[in-house]
Amino acid sequence: MTFKHAIVCAGKAESAIFPTQAKNIYGIQNYIAISEPLTDTQITSMMPSGECMCRDTQMVFTYYRLTGDKRIVLGGGSAVSSFQPFEILSEHTIYRVIQGFKREFPAFKNVLFPSYWSGRIQATRDLMPIVDHDTHHPHHMRVQGAV
């Protein structure tokens, strides 16, 4: 196959591949929880215009989306856990994210989030992705740190 243009999207590529951009991408610790299956009424109360992926505008942001089996994937963190160079494995952070979500959406006050985990997402300092053309290959574009 031959392509006229190529776009490479990565959380954080090796510095050997993207030397100037890699140093500006950081790992942010993030927690993710998944809910029990939801009713159509609960889903409509949260997403009246139809399914979407949402996030707030805080620096340490919370995000959520609906899965194919009608569960909510809810993610977020805290200022303490997000920017540490080491892992903070504490259920307190995800419980705080879940409680904040339930305050915003009272229809979910009795919904259980039986599973959660933590990991790192790759982002730039200002949470805006880095988009750059490859100087050696003008038809190649690189995108990194797109949260």
Number of domains: 2
Poorly predicted runs of 5 or more residues: none
Helix fraction by DSSP (H/I, runs of at least 4): 10-25%
Per CATH, which architecture of the largest domain?
2-Layer Sandwich
Counting DSSP H or I runs of 4 or more residues, the number of helices is: 4
CATH topology-level name of the largest domain: D-Amino Acid Oxidase, Chain A, domain 2
- The 3D shape can be described as globular
Task: List the secondary-structure elements in sequence, H or E.
Answer: EHEHEEEHHEEE
Kindly estimate the percentage of residues that lie in beta strands according to DSSP: 25-35%
> Major sheet: size, sense and barrel closure?
5 strands, antiparallel
Specify Rg, calculated over alpha carbons: 18 Å
Distance between the termini: 30 Å
Description:
It is a single chain. The chain is an alpha+beta fold. The protein has 2 domains: 1-24 and 125-147, no CATH class; 26-124, D-Amino Acid Oxidase, Chain A, domain 2 (2-Layer Sandwich), CATH 3.30.9. 20% of the residues lie in helices and 33% in strands. It has 4 helices and 8 strands, in the order βαβαβββααβββ. The strands form 2 sheets. The protein has a 5-stranded antiparallel sheet, with helices on one face. A 3-stranded mixed sheet has the order 1-8-7, with no helix packed on it. The longest helix is centred in the middle third of the chain and has 14 residues, at 91-104.
